Sequence to fold (102 residues):
Amino acid sequence: MAVIAGLLPLGTLAELVNIGTLAAFVLVCLGVIVLRFTSPDMPRPFKMPFHILFPTLGVISCGALIVFLPAATHWRFLVWLILGLVVYFVYSMKRSKLATQS
Fold:
């Protein structure tokens, strides 16, 4: 990470951090909405007023901010996401609990 941070221009790095954080916020908001419908009786430590209004607004607002980022940032994020998924699955194929049981 330090090498990448040292080699990329600050603006490019900031855009990558922005799109990554916004994508995480979108996923969390979508998770709240999905859980609200798939597990309505699940115990929750607190109740939100207006049920899915705020997570829906979160998806819309963060999604809009992602759309307005430059196209190059979208491509870099996609490449970084695919690279991360490849590393994750290659690493986990031999080290997962399911792989070691068989």
